[in-house]
């Protein structure tokens, strides 16, 4: 990792020193989590990284515990979940932590992604960092979807049926793929069992990609609200205690929200139909996925052709991979990009609107609106991002983080640096000396 | 260049306004749809288990159990409840003796250890509530083809679609009683169909019913049908409230424990957040950021 | 700026450190509180704790018969002993036993392991025991071993005709479950 091995870190404790000279794990921790230079102007939107780490750990621990009491069998699954809710000591708490936690995880990840989009965190040299994030998002969606199937309620069953049927849109091999996914001719025991297995496996894969994500982050350093690269040690503070304490504070605030849902409205984000045991003979009136998948579901239904809808839905995720190359602007942060700023907020509104439309019946005005917002979703990436970089005149960008901080505190305006804020002009990493 | 960018910005902002207006219109039409569906008949009741400090009322749950037992249980099973649950903390809290007595009044099918033949024995605390019908087909045959759903989770498995903006208000208002509100409204809204509406054979008119105005379940209870020994009024409204509360407990038996722990957790987290904020502020005091 | 603040940390604890210590302490309490539900969930759940009692009809058992029933997932031996077995057990002095305690929750915990204290109250031929070797949990075989009682095939513990440990690695007599005779022919275990 960045600067690793060049450290002059000398542990005081003899045992620690002995271990460290053989396995430099303490040096690594010191380098990456203690003295790691972090821009000092990070705002609270940057705390979602720590919050997401916490959520991943929470979901894995509570999930492992739930698996101790659950049985992935169509005859038993629904009963076992109720057994957890009624008889297992604190089972209700752990299940609600897990179920609400999925929503909290997605809320945090969407905030994290929106922050990255707004401040241009995907631009050079952070393309791989961003792409690894997109991989994590897709893995999270797969995990969340399969997890929702496990309680084997009506929404579990029909959600699984609808989503797996998406693959039948693939020409020629579609139906065979769907049967392969099901392990049968309908969603049944084989499907539930493999979903459980994968739902248990994928979080560990996510954890692995998270390690890569953090590795990439520590190679190139944090972006920051100005988008200007770190120039000197004046721009940074050590990660610990400055950022650890700030992250901790934000995390506990986040936990207040989380606890409110867990303890007071635990079923608010769930669907009542999932308290009805799965019945392959009765389809619920409205099948809706969990809220965090609704925007994508809306896009799926906005397109009148089956294959087209599936392609659009998957494209809406895959397009994120090429965002670093779609954006032509030399300036990272939307703070200095008046037009991009507007385009961004309209994009946010579109995503929320698509989320709401995904929960409505796919008919009449809803479909028209969904098409409109789907168009904007793609236009934002494919038209506005390349175009705005060319036609937009950015506002003056400060020369350095320290300068922008001083300007904010003393009311003076930042001077315009001609080449500043351009990713290509910035040093690649905040090298520590 | 500046002129060009201004126009583009102007275009964009107009676009934003359009999008916003579109979203708003959609929201309004959604709300209108929700109102049209006629579920405004479902009124919020003043439940003892609502709110941050909500607890079940023991006497109400005991009365609700009596209504369930004498009326609902003739058709509806309640598989997930065992007689021991009637005695556990946070529920109707019958005494252990009373719960044993209730259990022993039921005959539970079992297999004899000696002969291996099926026989009936009196129920014990660990037995689950016996179902009125041996299987789904038998239940349907006895009820004109309609299957009386299991009631263990019914209070969490039925809810009015709140629509926009109701669902946002609910989150802030800590409203999680839509299940019992629905059950109460359903039980109290059996009425004659409006003039000109053709009756559906084998169905009963109830404007609250979620899947249309016609429900297979006949009006289940009338005034004075269940005898209360504690002087509570024996009206359909009272029966409905009591049985709704009982069904909520059956669906969410750990509600009291949840809210009690939750309050302590919230206080703890808020204190911790304040301490962390002070710590963080102290740390950052000398850093311009 | 940052470096100044950083070096200050290495000073002696002062009044301003109180805030840090308080925050850390509250955090530790929180972690402990959060850990407990995750530990407690592995304890026996409410359905397992709701102890099921088992009724056994013993009307068809003759002298010298044994049956094994299931109670709380464990085997329970019920034996109607022969007079010779009772006599053999009675003749053994309690002082000779590796474990002098009766281990019978139906009479009290510190009673000596006499045959009367091991057997059913007022029904000395009847012996009701949890059929799990007190060594490492195997199920002993009946009417085997040097003392005519039970013999554990796993590690060779030998029990006498009152289920008391006599030789081998097991540390204690076979446990006795709570039980009563509901009638002359019915035993209620649990």
UniProtKB/TrEMBL annotation, chain A:
Region annotated Disordered, chain positions: 412-433
Keywords: Electron transport, Heme, Iron, Membrane, Metal-binding, Respiratory chain, Transmembrane, Transmembrane helix, Transport
Domain Cytochrome b/b6 C-terminal region profile: 229-399
Xref: Gene3D superfamilies: Cytochrome Bc1 Complex, Chain C (1.20.810.10)
Cytochrome b/b6 N-terminal region profile domain segment(s): 15-226
Gene Ontology BP terms: respiratory electron transport chain
UniProt binding sites for a ubiquinone: 218
Database matches in InterPro entries: Cyt_b/b6_C (IPR005798), Cyt_b/b6_C_sf (IPR036150), Cyt_b/b6_N (IPR005797), Cytb/b6-like_sf (IPR027387), Cytochrome_b (IPR030689), Cytochrome_b_C_euk/bac (IPR048260), Cytochrome_b_N_euk/bac (IPR048259), Di-haem_cyt_TM (IPR016174)
Xref: PROSITE patterns: CYTB_CTER, CYTB_NTER
Subunit comment: The main subunits of complex b-c1 are: cytochrome b, cytochrome c1 and the Rieske protein.
Protein name: Cytochrome b
Species annotation: Acuticoccus mangrovi
